[in-house]
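job 3f2a | input accepted
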Amino acid sequence: MPTDNASPNYIEKAQTLPAEESSRLLQRFDVYCSRNSRFRNMAATEKIAHLLRKEDEDLAAWRANLAALRQHTGR
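job 3f2a | predicted structure (75 res):
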């Protein structure tokens, strides 16, 4: 997780999420960051923004790995 402030794009996305989705993401955030005290004092919107960024980064890495695997296997 980044230590910098969340980017404005992700803050905007976090603010537009429905309450149910925000709640789900906050629960996931607590699981990811329960041991790191610097995240405990963040506003809920900023926590959600960081998690959205992490999910996007993880998805991009997964897609890159899948493309490399397909190239390696000839698919």
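job 3f2a | The chain is about 70% helix and 0% strand.
job 3f2a | closed
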